[in-house]
Amino acid sequence: MAKLYFYYAAMNAGKSTTLLQADFNYRERGMETMLWTAKLDERSGAGVIGSRIALSAPAHTFDESVDLFMSIGEELRRRDVDCILVDEAQFLTQRHVLELCEVSDALGIPVLCYGLRTDFQGKLFPGSAALLALADSLVELKAVCECGRKATMNLRVDKEGHAVAAGAQTEIGGNDRYIALCRKHFFERLREGEARQLSLGLARR
Ligand SMILES: Nc1ncnc2c1ncn2[C@@H]1O[C@H](COP(=O)(O)OP(=O)(O)O)[C@@H](O)[C@H]1O
Ligand SMILES: Cc1cn([C@H]2C[C@H](O)[C@@H](COP(=O)(O)O)O2)c(=O)[nH]c1=O
Ligand SMILES: [Zn+2]
């Protein structure tokens, strides 16, 4: 039976690198893959999955308008597909995840999703919540905090490096906007950020 996998981690853990390695392994064995990433994340270029160690590959892009089951079905009419690889899986909708379940269960194709578990406030992304609920296999990849502990959280920072405690869930960025931290250091810095924003707000009144 084909499975749905969710490889999750904080930023900088090497999720994209691991996806590209899995893609290489499949293709090295003569198998065909289909890569997907979020349309809104263009850090490595539109429709490109990039890694910090400079590996990259073109990918199909998803947004709310895309039906993944239909798109993958259409591709199957043109060529064989042995594995589906999805980067930035935190940006999937719950409907997308249900479509990927169908790809795995009805089409018998393994689906490997890579993404963040939680956002800059420590809350689940919709795609991650659905994958945590529905995936057959949950695999944690490891990032490292400044203190050496496992980094599980993602702190959003402003241009001066101060923690950002409030804002929209989605804000594309890299090392300039986010720091992967262990939970202890994440909450320390987040509370500092909250206190700072509060004092700035009070000072303005
Ligand atoms: N040539 C490059 N140099 C530095 N950073 C890059 C380069 N290409 C891509 N990146 C960044 O690296 C990210 C993916 O890095 P990766 O090491 O696989 O960790 P993760 O996906 O867990 O954050 C990309 O999304 C992009 O922000
Ligand atoms: C924590 C957090 C992250 N994002 C964005 C920032 C990046 O564009 C991606 C994750 O990138 P990765 O290196 O491939 O892990 O997600 C966001 O929009 N909101 C957040 O809270
Ligand atoms: Zn730490």
From TrEMBL:
Localization in the cell: Cytoplasm
Pfam family, one: TK
Catalysed reaction, written as an equation: thymidine + ATP = dTMP + ADP + H(+)
RNA-binding among keywords: no
Record GO terms (molecular function): kinase activity
Key words of the record: ATP-binding, Cytoplasm, DNA synthesis, Kinase, Metal-binding, Nucleotide-binding, Transferase, Zinc
Transcription regulation keyword on record: no
Family: Belongs to the thymidine kinase family.
Name assigned to this protein: Thymidine kinase
